[in-house]
Amino acid sequence: MSNKVMQWIDRRFPLTSFVQHDLSEYPTPRNLSYWWNFGSLAGIVLVLQVLTGIFLAMHYKADVNMSFASIQHIMRDVNYGWLLRYMHSTGASAFFLVIFIHMARTLYYGSYRAPRELLWWTGQGLLLLLMGTAFMGYLLPWGQMSFWGATVITNLFRATPFIGDQVVVWLRGDYTVGDETLTRFFALHYLLPFVIIGGVMIHLIALHMVKSSNPSGIDLADKDNIPFHPYFTIKDLYGLGVFLMVYFGFALFFPNLLIEPANNIPANPMQTPNHIVPEWYFLPFYAILRSVPNMVGGVVAMGLSVILFAFMPLLDRSKIPGGALYRPIFRVQFYLFIIDMLILGYIGYVPPTDQTIVIGQIASIAYFCSFFVVPFISTAEEKWLRKRGLPKQVEALIASEELQKAQKKTGGK
Amino acid sequence: MAHDEALGNVGRRDFLFKVTTVVGGVGVAAATVPFITSMNPSADLLAKATTEVDLVGMEPGHMRTVAWQGKPVFVLRRTEEQIKLAVASKGGLEPMADQQRVKQAEWLVVIGVCTHMGCVPNLEGEGWTCHCHGSQYDYSGRVVRGPAGKNLEVPPYHFSAADKLVIGEA
């Protein structure tokens, strides 16, 4: 019976072939480490955010006079409202953590290099969408941090040439962040996750075209690929279990750890809190913004600091496989970059003093330099590595890959 | 037949194709106007363009923050000393005479929005300090320390009576 139903469907819609091609038999390198879990994890966090978000939206009111109270209503009166809200607020942080690790893995193993440039760029687009969604969502509780965060960030658009002031008013729909701003942010905060889902589809189509990279950085092709199911469904589920322990650890035991206390005060347009900070995931970029004394310069620097990642496939000239694994200098560069990010994050968090401003400026310069030196260092490093000779097992892998390619060509004939 | 000739005329077809594309493009562009404009401030917000302030009971040195177009406006009744300080200096990063910034020396009216990132500065020390990024303004609302580069804006205002201030109308 079910066989007949499937046949009926398959004649009209490629269901079985799709499931085989992209899920059950999708070829996946057997040597993926746990760092490769974070892509599917990001997808699951996205589902969690959309689910909790939709149910929160059933109780939330996007109106300056009601939104703060409606959050209290969700926390106190709505059945399990506290759980939904804490899952959603913790989920935002979890999302960025997972995405940052996902990006760090791509950078470390050089997975952004050919033929995966489009995979990397679609991921960049998704990061920007995620940032926009998170920023708009942060306004919705209408607390002091929500209000002043949105004020400062919409103010950045004053840097637009000629029509800066009009752009800011247009974005806000008012001369200040107000009711109009709140309502449109809610509308967009609801819309953008679905745009992200569309973007994820494109990201996945690109992935299934070029297949996953792997720690060795060598295309293992059919020889060492194993079907996605059951091997990686199990591995992803195991990773999910570990993730959920950490996630619920925060959501249930320390739900307020990442919520600024000032956001429990209703927004007051007449009074700025003494110390305003963005959410932790924006801190390094905020530090770069503050480090530039000129406002327009700061905005440009901050924009560049996010966009620069997209240039990595062009900046990195090295053809040594495996990224940092077989490239000692690139590995040092990678860790220095991570340390620089952490320093910038700290500088973005503390109130500005003469000393922290200097440290922030040095760290910002180091941030940009670590991108601009990549072409020169990667070229020099490759020359040096080729001269010195790669590790034997790597040479063997490259040789086997080339042999396989050659065989494929002759086999095709 | 003339009809067939028209069909076979490639130049004419190309022309029609281009014209149609252009008209269609302009139509699409025009259709975005209502959507984009709908995001600008609505009529009821624009109607609240002026704010009336009653100055009765304000002592020298006393400041009030009033909302005008949703923005905080500082109304400071300056003391003799504060006026002296403001007149003596030319300002800092954007020099301007104090006389140009007030209508009556006693009353300073400025928009209380830091010209850097839009925070509200606090009245402290010899003027205002913005806690977001550390900009400082003097008793004339002129910026004396960055990162802000511009003075606090003076809104259009006039005194409708001796103790009545109307903000939003010069």
Lay out the secondary structure.
The complex is a heterodimer of chains A (413) and B (170).
Chain A: H1 2-10, H2 15-24, E1 27-29, H3 38-57, H4 67-76, H5 81-108, H6 117-139, H7 144-155, H8 164-172, H9 179-210, E2 225-227, H10 228-253, H11 283-291, H12 295-307, H13 312-315, H14 328-349, H15 354-372, H16 374-388, H17 392-412
Antiparallel strand pairs in A: 1-2
Chain B: H1 2-8, H2 10-37, H3 43-47, E1 51-54, E2 63-68, E3 71-77, H4 80-88, E4 107-111, E5 122-123, E6 128-129, E7 136-137, E8 143-145, E9 157-161, E10 164-167
Antiparallel strand pairs in B: 1-10, 2-3, 3-4, 5-6, 6-7, 7-8, 9-10
Plain-language structure description:
The complex is a heterodimer of chains A (413) and B (170). Chain A folds into two domains: 243 residues, Cytochrome Bc1 Complex, Chain C, CATH 1.20.810.10; 137 residues, plastocyanin oxidoreductase (Helix Hairpins), CATH 1.10.287.980. A two-stranded antiparallel sheet of chain A has the order 1-2. Chain A has 17 helices and two strands. Chain B has 170 residues and is α+β, with helices and mostly antiparallel strands. Chain B has two domains: 36 residues; 122 residues, 3-layer Sandwich (Rieske Iron-sulfur Protein), CATH 2.102.10.10. Chain B has a four-stranded antiparallel β-sheet with strand order 5-6-7-8, with no helix packed on it. Chain B has a three-stranded antiparallel β-sheet with strand order 1-10-9, with no helix packed on it. A three-stranded antiparallel β-sheet of chain B has the order 2-3-4, with no helix packed on it. In chain B, strand 5 and strand 6 form a beta hairpin. The interface between A and B is medium-sized, with 29 and 28 residues.
